Amino acid sequence: MMPERRRPNGAADETQVRVSTLRLRRSENRSTYSTMKVNINNKAVEYRIEGEADAPDQQVLLATAQDLTAGTDWAAQGYTVAEFLPAAELQQLQRGLYQLVREFMRHAGLAVADDFDISQYHHAVGDSKELHLAVINQIKEISQTRLPLPASVLEQRVSALCGRPVQALNPWDNGRWFHLRIVRPNQPDNNPLHRDVWLPDYDDCVNIYAPLAGSTANSSLTLVPGSHWWPESRVVRTRGGAVYNGVAFTVPAVKESEEPLQIIRPNPAPHEVLVFSPYLLHGGAVNLNADATRVSLEMRFWPAD
């Protein structure tokens, strides 16, 4: 029987990213913060993480969990980029999700045409935080009944890549959800660097990232290969949710590392999917596109056997 869990509210080119941290300092309210400097494609990015540091821990979280990458040829790195779906099914999925994004924009009060290019989302919302939040609040958890394809189609493909049957059903809360991620260029819309399993309900699964718009070598999801087998002590994380560049997130975040982190953007092509372990350090994927919003489909899959 699964233990009771509660969720808090709320094959391509790889781009190397080196991360270093400045010494931690303590603010007047005694919460700690760190400034992380990141170089992506020779472009310097700096972001600030606020939140009290957690105590060092030698535990390897994956050692006591189900590793859905085990037995695959990508188990060591913890991720793979592969062909996603047959052309007709992929087109149906992508076009349907484009329309879903436009629908959510209309619900937020934006007048967009049926052929609106969702990579230009940032121009539609402009500088309005209210409009952007009105869209984002609709895409955090979307029922799989809104998928343009049956979830079983995606389950079959991810099962094949994992070499075992998986399903898009969270056993901790029986939820069937998917997520759309919208990250505007040069805005703090992306999650900080983290492991999904620092939150409850995300053990024993694999994630997918499928690009929909604006996903490039300058904007796509970043991750640290092999970090799914790292002990917790290898980085310093916040005890609870982090404040990242002034934006509060429920997920804890990496505050510092004693070693330069070798972060990459696997950068799946439009016809590909990135499958990765939630135990990997990932996120912090600032969008450095000059004029394109990044939109992606994200889902999680658990053992079906």
First-residue to last-residue Cα separation: 14 Å
Q: Give the proportion of residues in helices.
A: 10-25%
Secondary-structure element order, N to C: EEEEEHHHEHEEEEEEEEEE
Largest sheet: 7 strands, antiparallel
Low-confidence residue ranges: 1-30
- What CATH calls the topology of the domain at 56-228 and 265-303 is Jelly Rolls
Q: State the total count of DSSP E strands.
A: 16
**What's the CATH first level of the domain at 56-228 and 265-303?**
Mainly Beta
Strand content: 25-35%
Average pLDDT across residues?
88
Number of helices: 4
Structural class: alpha+beta
Shape: globular
CATH superfamily of the domain at 56-228 and 265-303: q2cbj1_9rhob like domain
Over the alpha carbons, how many angstroms does the gyration radius reach? 19 Å
- Write the CATH architecture name of the domain at 56-228 and 265-303: Sandwich
General description of the model:
- This protein is about 15% helix and about 25% strand.
- With about 300 residues, it is of the alpha+beta class.
- Strands 1, 2, 3, 4, 11, 12 and 14 form a seven-stranded antiparallel sheet that branches. Strands 5, 6, 7, 8, 9, 15 and 16 form a seven-stranded antiparallel sheet that branches. Strands 10-13 form a two-stranded antiparallel ribbon.
- Mean pLDDT is about 90; it is low at about 1-30.
